[in-house]
Amino acid sequence: xxxxxxxxxxxxxxxxxxxxxxxxxxxxxxxxxxxxxxxxxxxxxxxxxxxxxxxxxxxxxxxxxxxxxxxxxxxxxxxxxxxxxxxxxxxxxxxxxxxxxxxxxxxxxxxxxxxxxxxxxxxxxxxxxxxxxxxxxxxxxxxxxxxxxxxxxxxxxxxxxxxxxxxxxxxxxxxxxxxxxxxxxxxxxxxxxxxxxxxxxxxxxxxxxxxxxxxxxxxxxxxxxxxxx
Amino acid sequence: xxxxxxxxxxxxxxxxxxxxxxxxxxxxxxxxxxxxxxxxxxxxxxxxxxxxxxxxxxxxxxxxxxxxxxxxxxxxxxxxxxxxxxxxxxxxxxxxxxxxxxxxxxxxxxxxxxxxxxxxxxxxxxxxxxxxxxxxxxxxxxxxxxxxxxxxxxxxxxxxxxxxxxxxxxxxxxxxxxxxxxxxxxxxxxxxxxxxxxxxxxxxxxxxxxxxxxxxxxxxxxxxxxxxx
DNA sequence: AAATTTACTATACAGTGTATATATACAGCG
DNA sequence: CGCTGTATATATACACTGTATAGTAAATTT
Lengths: 229, 229
Hints:
The structure is a homodimer.
Chain A: H1 13-28, H2 35-42, H3 56-80, H4 87-104, H5 106-113, H6 124-147, H7 164-174, H8 179-200, H9 212-226
Chain A binds a DNA duplex through helix 2.
């Protein structure tokens, strides 16, 4: 047998490969991802995967984009579940959704923010659209706060002129918002990311169930610091 | 030739192996670490390394412990460079030293806080002493603030009784300090870690030289929030 | 019906960590 | 000095990885 008849072939093999990859990542961790193992599970040969992904890294990139998309969906959904006029509540909801998503899909989180794949480095330009979108919910909420005059940014460092270019990339994918809002969103992101990443890594054991109390405290800290009135 | 004469053997082969490993990590990244490549550089065979490290993971563990020790040294040194009565300044110095160390040794930082080694998971009990020590400088400064009545912890979440046990481990290695101080230290750590990890990962481009301004802003935020008067 | 493209298999290569067996150099002891 | 035991290395081999290449059968197009 050299090749099975098409009737027995899987139609959406590209999707099926990714599903098998996620399944493996969920079970054995992202670092154990192996083309051959995927092929084994799908009962095809390893080089066959090359018809759909030029290399293992391209498969990983596709998975990362999927993960960012999943995070972005979760973030946008959390924001839009609350009325547009309750900006503070929306910000809190987005924050809660972030940790919730990370704890629901720790492997996806690690795939994005850790680097558990040997020798893999994400190609920025391919990943950026979905990455920017995943932050867009937070960014939009901060921007709304700013437009309402409720953003407290006394003493916030100015974005230096020579770095504005870096932000342009984000703006093209994440919506045309004020540089200041983007900056504040990124520092808020760094805070929640700080706790969540330590929690996912298991370095933050001693608070409530899975660091919940501490996380709520940080969300309050963020609100107190950045929301006026 | 089956084995070279002892005169040509390297005496501290264990240390030499680690040095070669760091050299490789610095050059090709932590994920590219390979026993065989180390052996090639040292002109020995790969299995010879097994006389000094039972497995590749044990070598990685040794490297991680070294990295934590290096971080701890840097932290303690930064703290002790300033007079004991200037607690706020000491805290800031420790914070600055953290980012400085991370930017000086990004590979070490990634080795500790990322998981770039395929299939490796750090054995907590072996790593914890050096890990706890690396945080001890910050913890001690926070504890000093608390003892001086300068720690602002209104509304700080209580450590729940069932999790106090987790802290005991830290206390045995990081000094006998108050649980509250330890908790506050960990949230401060999560903040600086949040920024620094994003910066190391290259996700935080648009602020001053390498995120310096933003980091200083966060150190101020921390001081404003947690230091009374 | 013939030609072309697609989608796979088969095979092979260089790399990895590591288990096993083996040989030598050295230390200690008679 | 010679013998023995152990530490320290080599040699070899196995199973695994990603991936390059070639070939073949099926499906599609002409």
